[in-house]
Amino acid sequence: MSVIAIVEAPLTEDGAQDFIKWAASKDGYAITRKHKGFEFIQTWLAEDNKTIYLHEKWASKEDQQAYLDFRVKGGMMDFLEPRLEGEFKVTYFSAID
């Protein structure tokens, strides 16, 4: 059964715009969509124009965690950390019906 991951990234306003540009680049979601278990991703920008939420759907929690590990090892946190204003967090959800 698929799993939903909600990623919360409280960024600076410039950081949020940098992330949006990165997501549209050849290094962004183009790579995400090719990763094992990927099903869906949508980016949301909160009313504060800073906090990014990612709504992701993966075949399994393990697939999403493997993808996140791939991104961390590839330097994603080096890109995000100077732009973060708070804690980067991932919450997982499973359907109950």
Radius of gyration: 13 Å
Biggest sheet descriptor: 4 strands, antiparallel
- Helix-strand string: EHHEEHHE
If you average the pLDDT, what whole number results? 96
Total of helices: 4
Give the class from helix and strand content and strand pairing. alpha+beta
Q: Name the helicity range.
A: 25-40%
* Poorly predicted residue ranges: none
Distance between the ends: 12 Å
Please give the order of strands in the largest beta sheet.
2-3-1-4
Share of β-strand residues: 25-35%
The count of DSSP E runs of length 2 or more, i.e. the number of strands, is 4
The rough form would be described as globular
Essential attributes:
35% helix, alpha+beta, single chain, 4 helices
Structure description:
This protein is α+β, with helices and mostly antiparallel strands. 35% of the residues lie in helices and 30% in strands. It is built from four helices and four strands. The chain has a four-stranded antiparallel β-sheet with strand order 2-3-1-4. A hairpin with a 5-residue loop joins strand 2 and strand 3 (51-58). It is globular and about 35 Å long. The model has no long low-confidence stretch (mean pLDDT 96).
